[in-house]
UniProtKB/TrEMBL annotation:
InterPro entries, per the entry: AAA+_ATPase, ABC1_TM_dom, ABC1_TM_sf, ABC_transporter-like_ATP-bd, ABC_transporter-like_CS, P-loop_NTPase, Type_1_exporter
Protein name (database record): ABC transporter ATP-binding protein
Record-level Gene Ontology MF annotations: ATP binding
Compartment(s) of residence: Cell membrane
Keywords: ATP-binding, Membrane, Nucleotide-binding, Transmembrane, Transmembrane helix
CDD domains named in the record: ABC_6TM_TmrB_like
Length: 582
C-alpha cells in the first residue's frame, strides 16, 4: 500500500524541506488541538468542586482563544505548504509526460491511443496529486495524531480505559486492508474504461462529418451510450467498496464510544478518574473519529494513487525508439544526402516498405518521387526525419550517418508538409508562425504569396486573425494545404519535403506554386512526392517507386523515352486533362 510513496521518493527527496516543515507544522497543530479538551475537563472539575473563580474562568477563556489563533495560523501554514507541494508534483509530472510524448516515435502512438493518454494526463495525475497532498495528511493523522491522542488518553487519564476503548482497532486494520486491495483492482479497471471512452469521444468529434455523411448518428450515440454505461458500471464497483469505509468506521467508533462510556462510568463510580477526566476522555474519543476515518481514507487514496502512478509510469518508462547518439557529430554544411542499400519495414508489418533503396542527392537538387499508392514514398520521408528505428543500410547527410547526427539539428534542416495537414486551433497567423515564431506580417504575406494564398486570405472574415477551428475545420482541403505550405516556406529549410502536399489544389494553382518554388528554392534541396506528374516534371531527378524498390529513375524527358510506368501514367493524365478541357 505504501509503495506509492517509495515510487514518488524522487519528488519527496527534492522537496524534503517543504514536506518536513509541513509535517512538523501539522504535528504542532495536532498537539495544540489536544489542549482544549484538557481545559474543558479542568473547568468541569473546578465547577464540580465549586472552586472556579472569575479570574480562573477569564484565564481559561483567554487561553482558549489564544490557542485557537495559534492553531489557525499553524494550520494555514501546513495546509498551504503541503497542498502547494501536491500541485507542484502534478505540474512536474504533467510536464514530464508532455516532454515524453514529444520524444516518442509513431510506434508509441500506435500502442497508446490518444484518449487513453489524455486520461493518464488528467484523471490519473489528479489521483497522484491527491496522494502527495491529502495522502500525506491522512498518513500523519492516522498514525502520529492517533498516537498522540492515545498517549494523552493513556498517560493523563487511564491506560485501562484507553486500551479497552481501542479494542476495535485491530479489526479495523484487517477490514481496511481487504477494502484497499479491492479498491486498487477496481480503480484500475475504471480508469482503463475511462481512457477507452475518451478515445471514442475524440474519434467521434474528429469524424463527425463522416458519421453524418453515412447517417451513423444513432449508431454512434448507441456506441457511446454503451461505453458510458461500462464506465459507470466500473466506477459503481469502486463506489461500492468506497461506500463501505464510512459505515465500517462508524460501527467501530460506536463500539469504542460504548466501551468508553460504560467502563469510564464504572471508573468514575470507583473514584479511579474524575467526572472531568471522563468528559475529556470522551472528547478525545470524538477526536479519534477523524484519525480512524483517516485510516480508511489513507488506504483508499493510496490505492487509487498507486494504481494511477502505475499507469503514468508505464508511459514514462516506455523508452524512445529513436535516441540521440552519446556524442552527436555536428554537421557544418549540408552538401549531400545519400541512401545506401536502405531496407526498412514497420515494426508491426511483415513486408518491407523499402528494399535496396539507393539515391545520391546534391545540394540544391529537386527530387520528384512518384509511384502507386503504398509504394513507399511517405515511408522514405519518415526515415529522412528519423521517425523510426531499425533501418538497414545507411542514410547519410554530408557523409555523416543519420544516427550520429543530433536529432534536433537534423529535423531543424527539414521543412515537412505531410499528406494530412495538421492545423492548430489558432489563427492563420499563429499556424504559419509555427514555422518561425518571430515572423512579421510582412514575412507571412510573402510566404502566402508563394503558397498562392493571398486571394483566399482577403475573403476570410478576419484575415490573418481568422480562427481555423479544431484541426482547421473552417478551411477547405486546398486552403489547409496552402497554409501548411506557407508554414514550411517561412522556415526557409535546407531540405523541403512535400508529401503529396498539393493534391487538393487545382492544376493552375499547383503550377503557380511550383513556379514560385523553382524561383525561391535555388541552392536548396527539395523532395516532392506526388500522384500528378505535372508536380515533378521540373525535377532534377525523378524516381518511380514500386513496392519499395526503384522501378525507374531519370529526368522527365529520360523517363518519357524509357516508355515505362512513368510515361504511361503521364499520357493517361494528359488525356484526362484534355477531356476535362474539351
Amino acid at each position: 500500500m505504501f509503495q506509492v510513496f517509495k515510487k514518488l521518493d524522487w519528488f519527496f527527496k527534492h522537496y524534503w524541506k517543504r514536506y518536513i516543515f509541513a509535517i512538523i507544522a501539522l504535528m504542532c497543530a495536532s498537539a495544540l488541538g489536544l489542549i482544549p479538551p484538557k481545559l474543558v475537563g479542568f473547568a468541569i472539575d473546578q465547577i464540580q468542586y465549586e472552586t472556579l473563580t472569575k479570574k480562573l474562568l477569564l484565564i481559561l477563556v483567554v487561553g482558549y482563544l489564544l490557542l485557537a489563533f495559534i492553531h489557525y495560523t499553524i494550520s494555514f501554514l501546513w495546509d498551504y505548504t503541503l497542498f502547494s507541494g501536491a500541485a507542484i508534483l502534478e505540474r512536474w509530472t504533467r510536464s514530464r509526460l508532455m516532454g515524453h510524448f514529444l520524444n516518442m516515435s509513431p510506434t508509441f502512438f500506435g500502442k497508446y491511443r490518444t484518449g487513453d493518454l489524455m486520461a493518464r494526463s488528467t484523471n490519473d495525475l489528479k489521483a497522484i496529486s491527491l496522494t502527495a497532498g491529502f495522502g500525506v495528511l491522512t498518513l500523519v493523522d492516522s498514525s502520529m495524531f492517533m498516537l498522540m491522542i492515545v498517549g494523552v488518553m493513556g498517560f493523563t487519564i487511564s491506560w485501562k480505559l484507553t486500551v479497552a476503548a481501542l479494542i476495535p482497532l485491530p479489526v479495523m486494520a484487517v477490514v481496511m486492508s481487504k477494502y484497499g486491495a479491492a479498491i486498487h483492482a477496481r480503480f484500475m479497471k475504471a480508469q482503463t474504461a475511462f481512457g477507452d471512452m475518451n478515445n471514442s469521444v475524440l474519434e467521434s468529434i474528429r469524424g463527425v462529418r463522416v458519421i453524418r455523411a453515412f447517417v451513423q448518428e444513432k449508431q454512434d450515440e448507441q456506441r457511446f451510450d454503451d461505453m458510458t454505461r461500462d464506465v459507470y458500471d466500473k466506477n459503481i464497483e469502486v463506489v461500492k467498496i468506497d461506500a463501505l469505509f464510512e459505515p465500517t468506521m462508524k460501527i467501530l467508533v460506536g463500539l469504542s464510544y460504548t466501551v468508553g462510556l460504560g467502563y469510564g462510568a464504572m471508573l468514575v463510580f470507583e473514584n479511579a478518574i474524575t467526572l472531568g477526566d471522563l468528559v475529556t476522555f470522551n472528547v478525545y474519543l470524538g477526536m479519534l473519529i477523524w484519525p480512524m476515518f483517516a485510516v480508511g481514507e489513507l488506504i483508499n487514496i493510496l490505492q487509487r494513487g498507486n494504481a494511477s502512478l502505475d499507469r503514468v509510469n508505464e508511459v514514462l518508462d516506455y523508452e524512445a525508439d529513436v535516441k540521440n547518439a552519446k556524442s552527436p557529430k555536428l554537421v557544418e554544411e549540408l552538401s549531400s544526402i545519400d541512401f545506401n542499400e536502405v531496407n526498412f519495414q514497420y515494426p508491426a508489418s511483415n513486408i518491407k516498405q523499402l528494399q535496396g533503396f539507393n539515391l545520391h542527392v546534391n545540394k540544391g537538387e529537386t527530387i520528384g518521387i512518384v509511384g502507386k499508392t503504398g509504394a513507399g514514398k511517405t515511408t522514405l520521408f519518415k526515415l529522412m526525419l528519423r521517425q523510426f528505428p531499425g533501418i538497414e543500410g545507411s542514410v547519410s547527410y554530408d557523409g555523416v550517418e543519420m544516427e550520429r547526427i543530433d536529432i534536433a539539428q537534423l529535423r531543424g534542416w527539414i521543412g515537412y508538409v505531410p499528406q494530412d495537414q495538421i492545423m492548430f486551433s489558432k489563427t492563420i497567423r499563429e499556424n504559419i508562425q509555427f514555422g518561425k515564431p518571430d515572423a512579421s506580417d510582412q514575412e507571412i504575406y510573402r510566404v502566402m504569396e508563394l503558397a498562392h494564398f493571398l486571394d483566399d486570405i482577403k475573403q476570410l472574415p478576419n484575415g490573418l486573425d481568422t480562427q481555423v477551428g479544431e484541426s482547421g475545420v473552417t478551411l477547405s482541403g486546398g486552403q489547409k494545404q496552402r497554409v501548411a505550405l506557407a508554414r514550411a516556406f517561412i522556415k526557409k529549410p535546407e531540405i523541403l519535403i512535400l508529401d503529396d502536399a498539393m493534391s487538393a489544389v487545382d492544376g493552375k494553382t499547383e503550377a503557380k506554386i511550383i513556379q514560385h518554388l523553382r524561383r525561391e528554392r535555388i541552392n536548396k534541396t527539395t523532395f516532392i512526392a506526388a500522384h500528378r506528374m505535372s508536380a515533378v516534371m521540373h525535377a532534377d531527378q525523378i524516381i518511380v517507386l514500386n513496392e519499395g524498390q526503384i522501378l525507374e529513375r531519370g529526368t522527365h524527358s529520360e523517363l518519357i523515352a524509357q516508355n515505362g510506368w512513368y510515361k504511361a501514367q503521364y499520357d493517361m493524365q494528359q488525356l484526362d486533362e484534355g477531356e476535362v478541357k474539351s
